[in-house]
């Protein structure tokens, strides 16, 4: 078995006379492991043979642990040495945001070929941009250039039929209920082929509407 760079570093200072890792890194990681296992400081003390006061100082970044201390931690907690070098995961905070859009109350964004209705438009810094679109174009020639924007797009036909033109594929007919997922930086364009203008629902990951 080949030793890792961390293990080589450990061997070089195995005398225990020098700090092995920065206390901030080890302290946060030790506390994360302890809380994840629902251990008290006394539990960890009994497992490692280290005093509670020492463990508390490590967790609060008040001491720089030596290799001998780290060795007791890895042995007593039954973890591998590299695990102590893994940065603690950031805690996730759910803000519980929501934005209701009543029927036909979205933000209108008309273009010569589409009539977009942006949904959830009052919510800032979204990861997705949902919108409902009436496809006014009736011929591909109405587009002077490809529609393209960063990210990815999911599209579902809510009413009518459309022809989806795309840069790298043959034109594709989509009827009511059909859906497609594609890279939206690929040139694309929609044309209504049904008697009425088609209506589609689209969700983009990011980028400006064209």
Sum this structure up briefly.
This protein is an alpha+beta fold.
Indicate the topology.
Blueprint: H1 5-12, H2 23-36, H3 41-48, H4 52-59, H5 67-77, E1 107-110, E2 114-118, E3 129-135, E4 152-159, E5 162-166, E6 169-174, E7 179-183, E8 188-192, E9 198-204
Antiparallel strand pairs: 1-2, 2-3, 3-9, 4-7, 4-9, 5-6, 5-8
Helix pairs in contact: 3-5
Protein name: Helix-turn-helix transcriptional regulator
Keywords: DNA-binding
InterPro entries: Cro/C1-type_HTH, Cupin_2, Lambda_DNA-bd_dom_sf, RmlC-like_jellyroll, RmlC_Cupin_sf, TransReg_Diox_bact_type
Q: What this model shows, in words?
A:
Residues 30-84 form the HTH cro/C1-type domain. InterPro entries: Cro/C1-type_HTH (IPR001387), Cupin_2 (IPR013096), Lambda_DNA-bd_dom_sf (IPR010982), RmlC-like_jellyroll (IPR014710), RmlC_Cupin_sf (IPR011051), TransReg_Diox_bact_type (IPR050807). It holds the Pfam family Cupin_2. This is Helix-turn-helix transcriptional regulator. Keywords: DNA-binding. With 210 residues, the protein is of the alpha+beta class. Helices cover 23% and strands 25% of the residues. It has 5 helices and 9 strands; from the N terminus they run αααααβββββββββ. It has helices spanning 5-12, 23-36, 41-48, 52-59, 67-77, and strands spanning 107-110, 114-118, 129-135, 152-159, 162-166, 169-174, 179-183, 188-192, 198-204. It has a 6-stranded antiparallel beta sheet with strand order 1-2-3-9-4-7, with no helix packed on it. Strands 6-5-8 form a 3-stranded antiparallel beta sheet, with no helix packed on it. A hairpin with a 2-residue loop joins strand 5 (162-166) and strand 6. Helix 3 packs across helix 5 (67-77).
């Amino acid at each position: 078995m080949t030793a890792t760079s961390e293990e080589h570093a450990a061997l070089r200072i195995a005398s225990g006379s020098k700090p092995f890792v920065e206390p901030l890194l080890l302290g946060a990681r030790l506390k994360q492991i302890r809380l994840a296992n629902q251990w008290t400081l006394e539990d960890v003390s009994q497992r490692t043979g280290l005093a509670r006061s020492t463990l508390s100082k490590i967790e609060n970044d008040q001491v720089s642990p030596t290799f001998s201390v780290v060795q007791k931690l890895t042995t007593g907690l039954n973890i591998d040495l590299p695990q102590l070098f893994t940065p603690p995961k950031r805690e996730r905070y759910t803000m519980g945001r929501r934005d209701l859009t009543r029927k036909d109350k979205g933000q209108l964004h008309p273009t010569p070929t589409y009539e977009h209705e942006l949904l959830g438009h009052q919510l800032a810094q979204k990861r997705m941009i949902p919108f409902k679109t009436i496809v006014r174009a009736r011929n591909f020639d109405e587009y002077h250039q490809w529609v393209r924007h960063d990210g990815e797009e999911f599209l579902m036909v809510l009413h009518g039929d459309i022809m989806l033109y795309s840069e790298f594929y043959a034109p594709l007919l989509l009827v009511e209920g059909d859906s497609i997922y594609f890279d939206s930086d690929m040139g694309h364009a929609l044309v209504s082929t049904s008697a009425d203008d088609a209506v589609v629902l689209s969700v983009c990951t990011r980028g400006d509407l064209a």
